[in-house]
Amino acid sequence: MTGTEGTTGTTDANSATGAPSNEDVHWHSINWKATHANVKRLQARIAKAAQAGRQGKVKALQWILTHSFSAKAEAVKRVTENHGKNTPGVDKETWGTPAKKSEAIRRIGRRRGYAPSPLRRIYIPKTSNPKKLRPLSIPTMLDRAQQALHLFALDPVAETIHDRNSYGFRKERSPADAIEQCFKLLCRKSSPSFVAEGDIKSCFDEISHEFLLKHIPMDRLILRKWLKAGFIEKQSFHPTEAGTPQGGIISPVLANLTLDGMERLLRQEFPEGNKAQREAKIHLVRYADDFVITGTSKEVLEQKVIPLIETFLGERGLKLSTEKTVITHITAGFDFLGQNICKRQGKLLITPSRKNIDRLKAKVRKVLKEQPQATAGEIIAQLNPMLRGWANYHRHVVSSQIFNDVDNDIFKCLWRWALRRHPTRTKHWVKQTYFPKIETRDWVFTGQTETHAGKSHALHLVRLSKVPIKRHIKIRADANPYDPAWEGYFEARSYALAKNTLEGRIDLQILWQRQFGLCPVCHQALTPDSPWERHHVVWRVYGGSDTFDNIQLLHQNCHRQIHAVKGKP
Length: 569
Known about the structure:
Elements: H1 32-51, H2 55-66, H3 69-79, H4 98-107, E1 119-125, E2 133-138, H5 141-161, H6 175-186, E3 194-199, H7 203-206, H8 209-215, H9 220-227, E4 231-233, E5 236-238, H10 251-259, H11 262-269, H12 275-280, E6 283-287, E7 290-295, H13 298-314, E8 326-329, E9 334-336, E10 339-344, E11 347-352, H14 354-370, H15 376-394, H16 400-421, H17 427-434, E12 446-450, E13 456-460, H18 487-501, H19 506-514, E14 532-536, E15 551-555, H20 556-566
Parallel strand pairs: 1-4
Antiparallel strand pairs: 1-2, 3-7, 3-8, 4-5, 6-7, 9-10, 10-11, 12-13, 14-15
């Protein structure tokens, strides 16, 4: 693989970084396959140097990466593809055009003279309690891209030193992995009977800046500038003396690194080589700042483990919430990451938590209440992604009965909505119009929508009960996505996970499998986390059909690149 990118040439000196001799490159002429390969190659070298304990080598490679054209282009691509791409910071700037994106590549990566802008502070409802608000600090697009750039260099080191059973905000890891680890620890008769549920007070807001600047393995001058940038709320500037702002791309990794070492501390204090300590069965499962610790004795958890954790957190400027940190017997059950974990008659059951179920039902009712005049097709277009996402999240636990119950509850809500919409019509007419029989299924909530070609197309509401329940295969604890030795493992795992995600969506599954799960433009994986779209090989305006032979799945950016390079609408 050479360092050539797009239509620009490279010199031998800068081929390692993938930097063109002239960075004035049009966005749609960039060779994304080459930029991705260049970044991945440097990240693999950083991971290997970190594993070998060669800190000087790590720093040198991080500098090369953050000054490379490839990493800068990929950083801009990342922040212009994610969900916040249209949300500006204090400068009200977004990068919605190819010209602005190309200009952004030239602007980021400069260390000297770089001064981040204050963050824009807004408040959004808490996921756990929509009536309460939590602060969200929004950086400018430029600062987001700078963070994405330095995250490319930091994350390979972080993945090398993270605790083995830390699962939050980590590449290739998910809440399902954390829940599966809980199952492994608690499912046997000999498993520990008590669980300490940890709750850290305002974790993101209270992390010590001094600790971050001393321990985070990245450019400390840049890190200090981000931490001290402050925020603007109601047109007033507020300095920041602690914390890493929720809303920054790099913040979750900084928080993870701050909490790393918790598992190692417990292993040191309760080594498996000591019989008494081994029988205490002290094990940690952490997802970001949510964690649980198992134990055979409530006294050991209360008198030894909790004080250890309090000391550990105190060194980082953090505290446990005494009200929310509780020790629970496994037969009473506890909630963790949206699931309820409980042992009944010696059998461990993991089901969607009551709070999580009620939250979904409330979201459905809100959609129907706020849009009484919407068509059935518009309602289905909003509900289907919500229901599909919720079902996919809970499909790995004991959910069949709950899926049926939620289906019934949603049906009742939709039936009342349809009756209110047509108060003068008979129930028979409402049933035939909104809940027809589709093949062998009766009472299928149905609506109409228009395709891009202007044709009417039937939409059907997703039924949760039709989503198959499948046991999740937990990631191996020592797997490192930046280490080339694990490449085959992650390729097979990503393929299997993506295939499961597409189950039930036959058209997408056929296209995805025919392409071996790869985008034909950049040859990178089409994963659930990367935005991708359907592309008509022969465009419809020129007579192209909607058949499988004429459709490809492309990354969103690759799809736009094809249309831009061809110069056609």
